[in-house]
Amino acid sequence: MGANKTERTIDLQDILAIVWRRKWLLIIPLILVTGIAYSGSYMLQERYSAYTIIWIDRPMSLSRELRGIIPTEGGPVRESPTARRERLAALRNELTSQLYLSQLIEDLGLQNDPEVSLKAAKMREQNPGFSMEYLKRRILMQQLRAQIGVGFAGQEQIQLSVESHDPVLARDMVSKLAEVLEREKTRYEMERILDNQSFADMQLRKTEYDYTIAVDSLTQAQTRLLRQQLAPEISSEQNLASILSDVDQAEADIRNLRSQLAGIEGRIRDLGLERSRLRYTDSLVDLRAKIDNQLNSLSSMMERYPWASQDVTTLNVRIGQNVRLLEEEIAAAVDAQFASYPASSRALLADFFSVREQIDILNSRQSQLRQAHRKMEDRINNLPRLAAEVQELERRVAEARRYRDAFRTEESIVEIHTDQTRDRTKYRVIEPATIPLSPIWPDRMKIGLMGLALGLVIGGGAVLLVELLDTSFKRTEEVEEFLGVKVLATVPRIENLKLR
Questions:
Q1: In terms of CB atoms within 10 Å, which end of the chain has fewer, N or C?
Q2: Positions of the chain with pLDDT lower than 70, given as ranges
Q3: Could you tell me if 305 and 454 lie in one domain?
Q4: For residue 91, which of 158, 144, 176 has the smallest C-alpha distance?
């Protein structure tokens, strides 16, 4: 019988027959998985990316005299891929440095985001030794370094991109980052130009440049002078003294509370409770973040409202109310978490945690008010300097105009005007950032195709598994192989047979 066995082969027609017979095992997973994958993509948080393109102008031109003594190459030097990667990495490191990110955070006020304050408050539960300001800045810098991208958009063109869940914020961040880059690079290049200019080749262009810079500097100085001026009731000595008085009072309160805290810590050690840790509840975290946001608002109001104004007074009252609520929340949390301790021990722990929070709040209040006072004093003290700067710039503008007009009348101006500036770099935005209209993630089409492929794999696996487990006969050859005899005849399957 073994000699009569024939080798089983499966051709394309058999495979198609199997697929058609088990089609629902293939179709159902395909539809379900694809639908689930595509529908689930709408539950993912969208990310938007805004970008701007900056052109790096690198003009290189030598005067006729310099070309006669300095050998030059036949054409521009092509930058190698390794050099391009290194330059791009250096630029990205520069853009994500603390210098740039600090300016970005300050200019956009990102440190006042309630979500950042909430994250910092949660982190402070595990890191009580760090202030809220430090934790907020650290969180923001970590987020920004992950959100910022740098790449080449073309020859001497770089593309800055920023990702965010808010399309408007993405546009604002990349625009401000480009502004900071342009400002820092321009300042650096200006210093290089002033240090390395050649009088023989740059005379006319230098006078034009000096005149333009003088006019721009005068306009900027006049603008800064207007911005530095505070309202008389805000810049008055009485108002500044009131702010300092509150700072001094906070300092005195901190000393008293630290003395009180030292006594409480001694009593806690005597009772063996020094290892007790308070687990912050959601209400405690929210209330602490709210107080921090109010302190930020108080600091920002100093340059707009007098200390004795109704707005400042109302905010101070609200801060005091929230501090008292914080003490009550801490006492309730201590009672809940240390219910097995005696009442006196719970009261002592509540005092310990409350005093520690009050010290941190007073430190933050003192720091922000002192910073606001210092900024106000700087603005007041800068007024005479800015006024003198404006006067000096007006003199420089008049002098630069006189030199420019004098060179324009000279016969040699055409010869001088043809000389080009030496190698210098200028950064200019050629593609301003716009609000992205569609998210870059999630890619629903890609997710749908992946779901389609996964459904196809699952369906195919199901068809294969069922087919392997099916022991029924499907061909005459299988019957002959099983019985060892030849099949004499087969009865075809009649689909639409009607029985009477």
A1: C
A2: 1-11, 57-79, 189-204, 406-426, 471-475, 478, 482, 488-489, 491-500
A3: no
A4: 158
Residue type, 132: M
Could you tell me which residues come within 8 angstroms of residue 448 by beta carbon, excluding any fewer than 6 positions away?
34, 37, 38, 41
* Cα gap 227→130, rounded to integer Å: 34
Whether residue 33 contacts residue 451, with contact meaning beta carbons closer than 8 Å, is answered with: yes
56 and 158 Cβ atoms separated by less than 8 Å: yes
Q: How far is CA 163 from CA 49, 107, 430, in A?
A: 4, 18, 20
* Residue 8 CB contacts under 8 Å (≥ 6 apart), including other chains: 477, 478, 481
Share of the chain above pLDDT 70, in %: 81
Residue 73 falls inside a structural domain: yes
Extract the tokens encoding 335.
């009672």
Best CA proximity match to 125, nearest among 452, 417, 360: 360
**Owning domain of residue 115:** 46-197+425-441
**How many structural domains compose the chain?**
3
Residues 91 and 119 in one domain: yes
Residue 187 token pair: 């300042």
386 domain-assigned:
yes
Asked if residue 491 is part of any domain, the answer here is: no
Do residue 59 and residue 203 come from a single domain?
Answer: no
